[in-house]
């Protein structure tokens, strides 16, 4: 948690420079508290870097495609020159991401993760898939992650303004 706190402090300091006045001075404290509640419920003081990265990516303001590519990058393994995501790593990703809705009481069962993993690998003979297959599956908006594109769409509409007047 101490290392993560340092990284978050640096991250939010950079954000303050890019967007002065738009970053809460307690952003590091709040984010660390959220990550701890999601990934360190037993209070060990340890949070997996990959889990924290997945949450930060999911909660970022980036596009869905950029988020999906980043998930792949963090959870993929390299087989020679090709990056692949295994069933086990996909399960880890889905489990990590599902801690986000779980923190507000919208948890998913372990069977949801298994069903989603099975659906992603449906018709695949290999033990791992390439990025395009992974992205294609995510674009189909699997039920286990339906909250992610929904939240993205909600946040995207916050910036919409219409130049209409009502009488």
From TrEMBL:
<feature type="domain" description="EF-hand">
    <location>
        <begin position="65"/>
        <end position="154"/>
    </location>
</feature>
<dbReference type="InterPro" id="IPR011992">
    <property type="entry name" value="EF-hand-dom_pair"/>
</dbReference>
<dbReference type="GO" id="GO:0045202">
    <property type="term" value="C:synapse"/>
</dbReference>
<dbReference type="GO" id="GO:0099536">
    <property type="term" value="P:synaptic signaling"/>
</dbReference>
<dbReference type="GO" id="GO:0005886">
    <property type="term" value="C:plasma membrane"/>
</dbReference>
<dbReference type="InterPro" id="IPR050774">
    <property type="entry name" value="KCMF1/Dystrophin"/>
</dbReference>
<dbReference type="InterPro" id="IPR015154">
    <property type="entry name" value="EF-hand_dom_typ2"/>
</dbReference>
<dbReference type="Pfam" id="PF09069">
    <property type="entry name" value="EF-hand_3"/>
</dbReference>
<protein>
    <submittedName>
        <fullName>DYTN protein</fullName>
    </submittedName>
</protein>
């Amino acid at each position: 948690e101490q290392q993560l706190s340092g990284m978050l402090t640096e991250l939010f300091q950079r954000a303050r420079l890019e967007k002065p006045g738009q970053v809460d001075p307690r952003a590091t404290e709040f984010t660390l508290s959220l990550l701890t509640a999601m990934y360190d419920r037993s209070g060990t003081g340890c949070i997996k870097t990959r889990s924290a990265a997945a949450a930060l990516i999911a909660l970022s303001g980036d596009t869905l495609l950029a988020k999906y590519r980043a998930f792949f990058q963090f959870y993929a393994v390299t087989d020679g020159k090709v990056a692949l995501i295994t069933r086990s790593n996909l399960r880890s990703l889905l489990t990590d991401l599902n801690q986000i809705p779980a923190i507000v009481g919208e948890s998913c069962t372990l069977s949801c993760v298994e069903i989603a993993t099975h659906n992603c690998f449906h018709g695949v003979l290999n033990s791992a898939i390439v990025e395009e297959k992974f992205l294609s599956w995510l674009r189909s908006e699997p039920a286990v992650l339906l909250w992610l594109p929904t939240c993205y769409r909600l946040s995207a509409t916050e910036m919409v303004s219409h130049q209409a007047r009502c009488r």
